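Quick one: structure for this chain?
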Amino acid sequence: MKNIKFCLVYVTVENFEQAEKIAELAIKNKFCACANIFPEIHSMFEWDGKINLEKESVLILKTIENKFKNLERLISKNHTYETPCILKLDISKGNKKFLNWLETTIN
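Got it. Here's what it folds into:
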């Protein structure tokens, strides 16, 4: 695990099916080791001058820094939103066994 930078990628998507599709593609392409899908959340936001309350799903992908750009491209290509929420959250510490598994799974 020398000099490996780990991160989570937080993504909101239209629904569970879209989250599942993106997660499966990301794992198959080894852009992430695993994904968590929260099937239904409620999001409130302003869009086109209007306050909206919508149901969405959340996708959290566990990966390493050097996979992020490819993962971001894959998400953008398969996302239905005009402006998708794709956030990289750096991990400063974690369970060493889990991080080792994460690294070996996608490298």
